[in-house]
């Protein structure tokens, strides 16, 4: 991120001092002391009064926004409004801002300038070494910096309504300040760590928490923070024996959680323990222990130490469009149809119910405003209100009416997931930045661990997606089969993994199919090692299924009008034997409207130098294989040949606030902008399937976008559209068109999809 223009350091210091002086400390019950404040002070800290000569700092949320509780953060200083630099900003700094503005908490924050570019001077934060911030009795405090925009809960803060909430988040709380330390040998060898002492870091020293006031609700919150959906009982006798043998260092506080908190810092600070100095005592007690239940995807198995695959039960909730495990747009299955959730009242409690339901921990972030991409279809739920203990988000209170909601308000979530250590088994080497490079894997060879390359034979975007996810670098933007321009570690040139084939859902490259110890790589490693480049965002193409269903029809077209189509292989092979003067072809025509619902533009894989000029249609085609149109029998066998082969990509139409960027004419740039769609009308050349040789019967009509995964997308599962079709030799009926998985893969799932519109009653054959 570039340097922010800012005030001189003294002005920064003064500004932040004034803001801290202004904060309403009465909202933060149980602050025990500031630096120099007596340790024996009462637990309810009386807030200092702002001196008359201390000016009030004003904050506001500005910019191009949809709701009152979101926007670009601006500060009024020295008589003018200015923006705030987002360097080193975190969700905890957003909590401070949102509470100062009168809200309960921050739901999320985002970098850059989503709400438009601000005017005036900018400011930036300073680090803790320049000014001592108030000390948080839970965690070691640090200074924070500001960011450019935040989203906040739409509930004004009311301390009386939330007496259990303890709020030290106005400091930079890091999850590393609390840990589960495995004590028993059985758990020390396991990944992830699911059982052990709860320890907090206090002034550089790890300390245990006395179990005298510890409850299972506390355990639930701690387990959720570390990515586990639930807690369980443990063998106390073993831990009592272990605790009696060693001297413990106790943290001098207890805590009281309700069990619905997403983070331990939201719990109430409980009784201060007796003891000397900065250590508490725990007479008659022992260190608090948690035992967590991992989700099925993270449960250790006795054979491999990790359960690579398992059969999913039919879920009611899923996450779509997220770059990393445990994040995505929330979608709910209702009446056999997947739909989204409106972000009205969306908060961490409801988001945590979704996360736990899916086998993750509590929610790290409740994301609003379709920041992880817009969905398609119905909006099933709105104004969700959960207690935090529901088994499913569908058990929460909600409003099924979605008036006023649209897909720009689709809710999403980032969940806490267990620390599996996958990112330590892989690295990118030689790239110009941390987001690209040759893929190097840590593998065991002859009894020792060593770094080596991955064979690039058949290496593609799907495999690259797994690498980027494993490293926490987002989506793959490109997969490379040659990496001679990236000078990696010479000692890691040898190939240690070959034959890699991924489905795209794996959390680690080692979970993909591969050759194991028997390496087979004809070109070798080194300059031919597999490489990737990663990106934080990706496009997401979705076909409008309803439009296909509504526009499908048959046309008998004379051969003399199909010369261009014949030249571009848009007809079945039998067309070459059809008379040019008297012959005709029967064509199944339809319109296709392809939306980009992702977070970045869809651009062709090849640069302009590789585009192909098509003389018949008088423009360049940037992708030879962009979409497959197929007619299949009920066994899935292709029965029709001849369809549109290559495409020119452009923005035909866009949403109201989106500007067109791509146009095919005059050798223009090609692509599909976020929020735009590319339309191929039913009446243009090659927008068909040639069914001249197809006999009457029942068929599956299928459209697959980006079938070879040449361009990375955030979600490939919605690239397939399927329809049922019936052809009687003269007419065709298209019905039950839908996106994604369904009866096309398993006929027993047919009941899940209601009958759609069709061209009249469907006859019996």
Automatic annotation (TrEMBL):
GO terms for molecular function: copper ion binding; protein-lysine 6-oxidase activity. It catalyses: L-lysyl-[protein] + O2 + H2O = (S)-2-amino-6-oxohexanoyl-[protein] + H2O2 + NH4(+). Belongs to the lysyl oxidase family. This is Lysyl oxidase homolog. GO terms for biological process: chromatin organization; collagen fibril organization. SMART domains: SR. The lineage of its organism: Eukaryota, Metazoa, Chordata, Craniata, Vertebrata. The lysine tyrosylquinone cross-link (LTQ) is generated by condensation of the epsilon-amino group of a lysine with a topaquinone produced by oxidation of tyrosine. The gene is Loxl2. Pfam families: Lysyl_oxidase (PF01186), SRCR (PF00530). GO terms for cellular component: basement membrane; chromosome; endoplasmic reticulum; extracellular space; membrane; nucleus. Disulfide bonds join 257-267, 386-396, 502-512.
